[in-house]
Write a structure and sequence with these properties.
This protein has 83 residues and is an all-alpha fold. The chain is built from three helices and no strands.
């Protein structure tokens, strides 16, 4: 793949590569990985915000009540009456 960078940016990347004893490719790889991780984090935050908004819009229940309900369902499904 060929990437056409502005000359000033390419010079800065080359200087950093030489200073840190890495290749330009390593610098670009690290930068792209960091950018992708940041984008994924932003998507996760947006998804969590949407879920919270839906929860509030739909009249969500307190966490304690939700966990109690799940525990009761689990008990009803898997409990044995060996008392």
């Amino acid at each position: 793949m060929t990437v056409d960078l502005a000359p000033e940016l390419y010079r800065a990347v080359k200087v950093e590569a030489a200073r840190s004893d890495r290749s330009v490719r390593d610098i670009v790889d690290a930068a792209l990985e960091a950018w992708l991780e940041a984008e994924e984090s932003l998507e996760d935050v947006a998804s969590a915000a949407e879920a919270l908004a839906e929860y509030r819009r739909d009249g969500g229940i307190p966490a304690e009540e939700a966990f109690a309900s799940l525990a009761a369902e689990t008990h009803a499904t898997y409990a044995t009456d060996e008392a």
